[in-house]
Known about the structure:
Mean pLDDT: 91
Strand content: 35-45%
Largest sheet: 10 strands, mixed
Shape: elongated
Oligomer: single chain
Amino acid sequence: xxxxxxxxxxxxxxxxxxxxxxxxxxxxxxxxxxxxxxxxxxxxxxxxxxxxxxxxxxxxxxxxxxxxxxxxxxxxxxxxxxxxxxxxxxxxxxxxxxxxxxxxxxxxxxxxxxxxxxxxxxxxxxxxxxxxxxxxxxxxxxxxxxxxxxxxxxxxxxxxxxxxxxxxxxxxxxxxxxxxxxxxxxxxxxxxxxxxxxxxxxxxxxxxxxxxxxxxxxxxxxxxxxxxxxxxxxxxxxxxxxxxxxxxxxxxxxxxxxxxxxxxxxxxxxxxxxxxxxxxxxxxxxxxxxxxxxxxxxxxxxxxxxxxxxxxxxxxxxxxxxxxxxxxxxxxxxxxxxxxxxxxxxxxxxxxxxxxxxxxxxxxxxxxxxxxxxxxxxxxxxxxxxxxxxxxxxxxxxxxxxxxxxxxxxxxxxxxxx
Length: 418
């Protein structure tokens, strides 16, 4: 009986502990105990920017504490391992060796920064707060960030940007204005409607022209989620962080939501592609005679291949594809014939009215961009006609007797986003 009582007590205690854990699921609101004693402008005055990158240490024991509101976000991939904060006197970029910083330091979050042990320096004349090593500014290690940076309260509405309608020379802009949130009014992208925000290979600068003819550079990371979108057209307003790279004045946006009053161009999106590893279970089928089509997925090739036999006639048919809401659909694919193309034996068709029988269906042939005998890979692109915008669009690849194999890959349909 004594053991039974102990078991009952243990179970009751466990239930109580579970209840306590449930109450602790909600994280407490972050709060900084203390106050700032230095403005950001005063912090910036501790370092003189020269012709090369340099720094000034903030000695341990100097008790320099600043506060400001976060104005950047790395949620869209355009700000990497830093946050910007600003107060009424200036702004500073704080380098932190971590990503997804927006989860802790989101736009509008007030933070306090204990600067003792850090350095105030610059990178290509842009003020930064962090560490110094190997002749340049370095981020605060992620495991040490909590020793220096303290969120306080819940994120509030973001800071009001400084309105700019003209861009002065880099050296004529006060140091306290760099790293601040600004709003360019009456701005036009010089390559609007033509170029993407960034090239795929590296961060990219795109020129912006103001109404008075002065210019500024939009700097975008090639890792930004919007990097491959087309720059907007027309004239509008851009909200972002004012930066510099030596004598080039730049603006960096968090995301495309920081653009307003522009004409945003429609962009193409992939609405159909092929999962080759499971294609024949997802509506692709073949009919006819001769050697069958195969779906290959390996390190060297991902697609369909047919190794024909003499006199064969084998048809590879896609599943029904709904193009009824597609804007200007484009069919594209890559193909190769190692022993040489032959347009008499390799043909591509489409239909908008499949009867259920390939022989009674009306098929429309698409002209291939090949030269007979050519053995290298060829990219095909077809602007499909309006009549193709139906719920039951299908394509067909027909391989008749020919001594050359036919490899098909990258089959997809893209259309303008609505």
